[in-house]
C-alpha cells in the first residue's frame, strides 16, 4: 500500500501549444521526509519446534490416512498421524505365504537330493558287482569258452567301465548341484524375508505419537503447502511439529510484484487480527531467496519474510493467528520522491521531463530507494522543479 505522499503535488496545466498541453500534468518538486513502506498478510509461527517425522529406518513411502487437526493440544504419547496399512497388511500376508512356500521347496529339495544320492550309490555298487563278474569271465581259459562268449564278456566289461565312470561323475557332481539349487532357493527366500522386514518396519511406524506435551502443527512441504490427508510421506520427512513455548515469530507473505527493497534488519509493524488495536514491533530476520506459490491452484507468487516479535507480547499471541505487516523498507530525510510513472528510460539512462516555461526539457537523474509505486531521485532535480508525468511528443532541449 502506498503511503500518503509527503511532498506537495501542484498540478499545473501546460501551455506549450495545441491540445497536447491540456492533456499533460506536472507537479512541483519539494524535498520532504518520507518512509517507503509496503503491507502484506501473514501469520504467527514458531521459530523453534520439536519435529515429528517418519522414522528414517522405514524403507518405503507411506500415505497419510488420518491427521490430527492443526493447533490441537496434545499430551506426550498421543497419536497425531496414522498411515494407511491395508496394502501393507496384504503385502505382508503374501510375503509370509511366499516364505512358507520357499521353505517347503528347500525341504523337498533336500529330500530329493538324499534320494538321488542313495540311488547313485546303489547303481555304483551294482556296476562294481557286475564288473567283477564280467572280469571273471574275461579271464577264463579260451579252451573252455568260445570266442563269441569271450568277446561278449569283454564288451560287457568295457560298457560297465563306462557306466562306472558315469556314476562316479554323478556322485562327484551331485553335492555341487545340490548346493547350487539350494542356494538359489534360499536366495529367493532371503529376498522375500527382506521384503517382510521392510513391511514389518512400515507397519511399526503406521502411527506416530507426540514426543512431548504441546500444540500440534502440520508440517509444510519445501514449496510451502501444508501436509494433509492422502499425501505420500517418505522416510525422514516431517509430518508435524510441536512449537517450543515462547519461541514465536511472524511469517509474512509479500507478493512478488511488491517485494522491492526488502532486506534483513528492516523494521516491521505488526497488527494481529484478534487484537487489531495493538501494534507490535518486529525486525526482519530472513527473506526467502525465491518466490513461491502458497497454493498449487493459485499462480500468485510470494516472497516469504520472517520477522521477530516483541518479547513481552509472545505470551499473549496464539500460534496461527493471522496478521497484517507493514514493512518499512527505507526512511528518508529531505528526499525527493517521484511516482514511478514520472521516470523514463533514454539510451539506458533514467530521465525525467521538466516543464520549463511552455517547453519540455529532458533531465538525467540517478535513483535510490524504490517501492512498487514510488522512487527516490538522488541527483538531477532541485526544489521547485516541475516534473511531467507523461512523455511529450516533441522536446526542446
Jot down its keywords.
single chain; 397 residues; alpha+beta; 6-stranded antiparallel barrel; 4-stranded antiparallel β-sheet; 29% helix; 35% strand; disordered N terminus
Q: How would you describe the overall organization of this protein?
A:
- There is one protein chain.
- By secondary structure, the chain is of the alpha+beta class.
- The protein is 29% helix and 35% strand.
- The protein has a six-stranded antiparallel beta barrel.
- A hairpin with a 2-residue loop joins β14 and β15 (298-307).
- The longest helix is centred in the middle third of the chain and has 58 residues, at 147-204.
DSSP helical segment count: 3
Instruction: Give the end-to-end Cα distance, rounded to a whole number of Å.
Output: 37 Å
Order of helices and strands: HEEEEEEHHEEEEEEEEEEEEEEEE
Q: Got a strand count?
A: 22
Query: In order across it, which strands form the biggest sheet?
Result: 2-11-15-13-12-16
Name the poorly predicted regions: 1-23
- The shape, in one word, is elongated
Category by helix and strand content: alpha+beta
Portion in beta strands: 25-35%
Compute the CA-based radius of gyration.
45 Å
What's the topology here?
Blueprint: H1 20-23, E1 26-28, E2 32-46, E3 49-53, E4 62-67, E5 72-74, E6 79-83, H2 86-138, H3 147-204, E7 207-209, E8 214-218, E9 232-233, E10 238-243, E11 248-255, E12 267-272, E13 280-287, E14 292-295, E15 298-307, E16 322-339, E17 344-346, E18 349-356, E19 359-364, E20 366-370, E21 374-379, E22 386-388
Antiparallel strand pairs: 1-22, 2-11, 2-16, 3-10, 4-6, 4-9, 5-8, 6-7, 8-10, 11-15, 12-13, 12-16, 13-15, 14-15, 16-21, 17-18, 18-19, 20-21
